[in-house]
């Protein structure tokens, strides 16, 4: 009898070794740019081998800062809020529509040393010194933001609209989210529980760093098959296109549906950097022609996020519903 010898699908791997994010165009930049554009056009995400986020920094961040953060009492974590108009910018936990096994805190706007310090002071108002926490968190967030900016620039250059990068970059704000996904109560081998349901991101680019080898992220390919992410190296990050990059490129990149499902008996920790544009999202003229008529109406990210919150966690193409042309 014939057997199916196909290997499980994996995210495409792109090696950023030797790519200096502060020197666009130098070294391997052009070769990596071609891979980035192809990966985001086909699957909408990829596994980035990114040695700039070193093992020592990852360990200080997750084993020190992040685990210390989630050990805080719930009342302390609930202080992480940005007001009723921004419900997705702060603490998430125990909310309708979210699994009880999921909890998350965030630093929003621009992840600069001052905002990290303000977050630490909010969490530990009586601490004498939060320097170690701040150094670890800012160090991880800064390197993830450097990769995000490089990928944004590569996409624009690869599509022939590199002129737009400066304006987009100046408008960009970030949400840096630190998340914990508790293991299922049933530890039966092979069993998994969804901790964050199927969705697309409202960002332009999302960068994900998971702690160690506790997997959970699953991405839906174009044929509907679910691809379970397994890091290709200890230096791996996931880079994923969000719906705002899909809109800005006039549907030339995919914004994949994805979810988090965990198994085993160990909690999963991750850091997620969302890049949110402050300017009006409208495809450049160069990306609109007879073969590529406008797919989406111009809009603002704040309005789109409010629409997504109002629609809830339903598995649907919210961008098309919100502003499809």
UniProtKB/TrEMBL annotation:
Pfam families: 2OG-FeII_Oxy. InterPro entries: IPNS-like_FE2OG_OXY, IPNS-like_sf, Iron_ascorbate_oxido_reductase, Oxoglu/Fe-dep_dioxygenase_dom. Keywords: Dioxygenase, Iron, Metal-binding, Oxidoreductase. One of its GO terms (molecular function) is dioxygenase activity. It comes from the Eukaryota. Coiled coil: none annotated. PANTHER family: 2-OXOGLUTARATE (2OG) AND FE(II)-DEPENDENT OXYGENASE SUPERFAMILY PROTEIN-RELATED. 2-oxoglutarate-dependent dioxygenase essential for auxin catabolism and maintenance of auxin homeostasis in reproductive organs. Catalyzes the irreversible oxidation of indole-3-acetic acid (IAA) to the biologically inactive 2-oxoindole-3-acetic acid (OxIAA). This is 2-oxoglutarate-dependent dioxygenase DAO.
């Amino acid at each position: 009898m014939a057997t199916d010898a196909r290997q499980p699908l994996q995210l495409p791997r792109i090696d950023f070794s030797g790519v200096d994010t502060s020197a666009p165009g130098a070294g391997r930049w052009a070769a990596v740019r071609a891979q980035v554009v192809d990966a985001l056009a086909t699957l909408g995400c990829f596994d980035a081998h990114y040695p700039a986020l070193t093992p020592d920094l990852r360990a200080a961040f997750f084993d020190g800062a992040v685990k210390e953060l989630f050990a805080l009492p719930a009342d302390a974590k609930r202080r992480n809020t940005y007001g009723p108009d921004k419900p997705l910018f702060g603490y998430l936990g125990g909310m309708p529509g979210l699994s009880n096994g999921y909890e998350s805190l965030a630093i929003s706007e621009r992840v600069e040393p001052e905002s990290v310090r303000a977050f630490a002071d909010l969490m530990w108002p009586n601490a004498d010194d939060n320097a170690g926490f701040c150094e670890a968190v800012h160090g991880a967030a800064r390197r993830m933001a450097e990769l995000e900016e490089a990928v944004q620039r590569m996409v624009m250059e690869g599509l022939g609209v590199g002129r737009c990068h400066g304006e987009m970059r100046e408008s960009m704000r970030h949400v840096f989210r630190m998340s914990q996904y508790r293991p299922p109560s049933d530890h039966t081998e092979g069993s998994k529980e969804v901790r964050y349901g199927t969705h697309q991101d409202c960002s332009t680019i999302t960068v994900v760093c998971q702690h160690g080898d506790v997997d959970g992220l699953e991405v839906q390919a174009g044929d509907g098959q679910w691809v379970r992410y397994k890091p290709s190296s200890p230096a791996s990050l996931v880079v994923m296109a969000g719906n705002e990059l899909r809109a800005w490129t006039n549907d030339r990149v995919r914004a994949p549906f994805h979810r988090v499902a965990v198994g085993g008996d160990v909690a999963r920790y991750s850091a997620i950097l969302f890049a949110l544009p402050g300017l009006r999202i409208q495809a450049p003229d160069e990306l609109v022609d007879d073969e590529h008529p406008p797919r989406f109406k111009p809009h603002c990210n704040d309005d789109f996020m409010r629409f997504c919150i109002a629609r809830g966690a339903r598995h649907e193409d919210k961008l098309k519903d919100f502003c499809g042309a």
